[in-house]
Design a protein that fits this description.
Oligomer: single chain
Number of helices: 18
Number of strands: 15
Shape: globular
Radius of gyration: 27 Å
Structural class: alpha/beta
């Protein structure tokens, strides 16, 4: 991979050991599968050898042309004159092909982490951390950079964090806040200015008519917004629309300036992007001719294409770079933690959604899966507090609880202890037709709206369209306000699944029992 780029000669040689091999392996994997560029989050600055930086810039340039499979023709047809000089000096396509032939792409994750780790060590060195001189750890003398060879990138940072946490200050190093309780003027001024509130998700941008696009204003107000440093859960049965309602909430958070990272083991990026497009078309542009099914099936007219182009331009101007999606095959908490750390620390993301926490076992089977969900929820709570971010997650409810009319933490079955870790817990289910029938005294859900009359709030009965699709959402835990158990009230939401859109239609008082 050649010489170091200018300025990198300052690093001790032991920190550069194997650097050419690390960068060469990563470059070879990318050359073997250019689609890796779309998910790795690497930049040219992550490479410190001249050849590594050159080849990465070359491959990124070729990928920007829409090419996903590399061959000699695609390189020669798209290379710039400036790049071509360097390409020929390095032996042309034959050199690149030799790299591709010797690498095993199945090792991509490990090879990428090796590059991450090498860069973490260099950044620690740049910031004055001792990584080259012997230190005493648990009574033994060790060389940090030698220890790092046995760790991954996450392990390197956690090792330093564990050492920092042992520094004595006379107080707990894990305390978030320590102060005497006194109600000074600054505290009162902050409250009056609304600085003690969370991030609302009540609305989105103005629509094409200049009117505010509503998200979930009443729910947002009940929560006082999502607070920094908190973990918030939405539980629901399979196919109830958990991912769709998060889209409405996320759009409200984006409007408030948040940068949102979504990590999903439920759906692919294409499906999510389609959902966002149809939501924007419906909510902001009032265009109803394209549904999610149309987008996925390619049933798109010329008029539809023009409107999609309008959405593309709007998104590029307003929210490009503020929403990131990562699809994972299974619930790998170590990988999830690494990605959250990367996007929070490197790219400034301040809100994370994990979709979905779930367990495929019944209550009578192995407890380990239920214990894992509890442990994962505690990890998410720690992550939220450590990085002072808003942490959101979906959770699949126990299928054995379907038919329950009133939802509470017991529907989480053996993993109900996750309620202890979260700031807010929302639970959502479908509405049964019997619940919409006013004459059915046993199951009628009693929908109503509140309005201010003569200085007092009164309730007016609301008639639900029986042909619409409805969901009922319970607030089972709310540290900043009322919950459903306190007043017996839940939200009745209209779900337009074809547009991935939820709207707050009214409140309701669901019955207890089963159906």
């Amino acid at each position: 991979m050649g010489k170091l780029i200018s300025g990198c000669e300052r690093y001790p040689k032991e920190l550069l050991e194997g650097r050419q091999t690390i960068e060469g392996s990563v470059i070879a994997c990318i050359a073997k599968d250019l689609l890796l560029l779309d998910e790795c989050g690497l930049n040219t600055s992550d490479f410190i050898t001249q050849d590594g930086a050159y080849y990465f810039a070359l491959l990124k340039h070729i990928r920007s042309k829409g090419i996903s499979v590399l061959d000699e023709l695609s390189v020669l047809s798209n290379i710039t004159d400036t790049m071509e000089v360097g390409f020929n000096e390095r032996g042309g396509y034959e050199t690149l092909q030799n790299l591709i032939d010797v690498v095993d792409a199945r090792n991509w994750d490990a090879l990428l982490d090796s590059l991450y780790k090498a860069n973490v060590v260099l950044k620690l060195y740049d910031n004055g951390f001792n990584v080259t001189k012997p230190i005493i750890d648990n009574g033994k003398e060790i060389l940090p950079y030698e220890l790092f060879k046995r760790l991954d990138s996450e392990g390197v940072l956690e090792w330093y964090e564990s050492r920092l946490s042992t520094f004595g200050t006379g107080y707990s190093s894990k305390a978030l806040e320590e102060e005497d309780i006194e109600f000074d003027d600054r505290f009162i001024d902050d409250c009056c200015a609304g600085l003690e509130t969370g991030v609302p998700f009540d609305r989105f941008d103005d629509d094409i008519n200049g009117q505010a696009v509503s998200c979930l204003p009443y729910l947002s107000n009940q929560f006082n917004g999502f607070m920094e440093g908190t973990f918030n859960i939405l539980g629901g049965f399979s196919s109830v629309g958990k991912s769709s309602i998060w889209i409405t909430i996320i759009m409200g958070l984006l409007y408030r300036g948040r940068k949102v990272l979504i990590i999903s083991n439920e759906q692919k990026c294409k499906v999510f992007k389609v959902a966002v497009i149809v939501w924007l078309l419906y909510k902001r542009f009032h265009y109803t001719k394209i549904t999610r099914k149309d987008m996925l099936n390619g049933n798109i007219s010329d008029e539809d294409k023009q409107m999609i182009k309008v959405v593309q331009d709007y998104w590029a101007r307003t929210y490009k770079g503020k929403l990131k999606f990562i699809a994972i095959p299974d619930a790998d908490m170590a990988f999830v933690k690494k990605k959250i750390r990367e996007y929070v620390l490197r790219f400034g993301f301040d809100t994370v959604l994990y979709d979905t926490m779930k367990c495929d076992f019944s209550d009578s089977k192995d407890d380990k899966e239920w214990v894992r969900l509890i442990k994962d929820s505690r990890e998410f709570d720690k992550i939220a507090k450590r990085y002072n971010i808003i942490m959101l997650a979906s959770m699949q409810l126990s299928i054995a609880m379907q038919g329950r009319l009133w939802l509470d933490a017991s529907t989480l079955s053996m993993s109900k202890q996750v309620k202890e870790t979260c700031e807010t817990l929302m639970l959502m289910r479908s509405v049964y037709q019997e619940e919409l029938d006013p004459d059915n005294k046993k199951f009628y859900i009693r929908p109503f709206r509140r309005k201010l009359q003569d200085g007092k709030w009164i309730e007016e009965e609301y008639t639900c369209d029986p042909t619409a699709v409805w969901r009922v959402l319970f607030v089972d835990k709310n540290r900043n306000g009322q919950d459903s158990a306190g007043d017996g009230v839940a939200y009745l939401l209209k779900f337009r699944g074809q547009y991935c859109c939820f709207s707050e239609s009214c409140l309701c008082r669901p019955r207890h029992g089963t159906i």
